[in-house]
């Protein structure tokens, strides 16, 4: 894509701090570094979000995640955890519309990063949960 910042990074038109590259993915440090080692994994093929992936590309891209995550863990043994995030579409906080997976190392509960879902147990009845599950099952191909 012509004006995609991640395509430009992949094509070396914009510098980056590359940590991994192969024929399918390019992984580099996020410029914002939410925590030390915050890495973005992007497919070399331009897809805007998870909804544009073909099954083969998804399998190849997501298969690289454990390899890169393990490398981050080895590089920073003081790391106590890792968040894997993938935001899709603007409402879900996607800001660059080239699919990317965030690998965010966690060092302590005091990191400047938080995800809190809250407890919504019981929000939906058994019947509603069954209807929701069935609606999704009917669409899985």
Automatic annotation (TrEMBL):
It holds the Pfam family HIT. A motif (Histidine triad motif) lies at residues 98-102. Residues 5-115 form the HIT domain. This is HIT family protein. It comes from Enterococcus alishanensis.
């Amino acid at each position: 894509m012509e004006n995609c910042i991640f395509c430009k990074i992949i094509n070396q038109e914009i510098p980056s701090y590359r940590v991994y590259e192969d024929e399918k993915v390019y992984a580099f440090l996020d410029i914002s570094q939410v925590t030390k080692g915050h890495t973005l994994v992007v497919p070399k093929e331009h897809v805007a979000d998870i909804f544009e992936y073909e099954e083969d590309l998804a399998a190849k891209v997501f298969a690289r995640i454990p390899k890169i995550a393990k490398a981050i863990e080895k590089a920073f043994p003081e790391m106590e955890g890792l968040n894997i995030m993938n935001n899709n579409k603007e409402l879900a906080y996607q800001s660059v519309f080239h699919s990317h997976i965030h690998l965010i190392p966690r060092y302590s509960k005091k990191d400047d990063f938080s995800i809190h879902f809250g407890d919504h147990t019981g929000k939906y009845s058994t019947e509603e949960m069954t209807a929701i599950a069935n609606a999704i099952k009917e669409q899985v191909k």
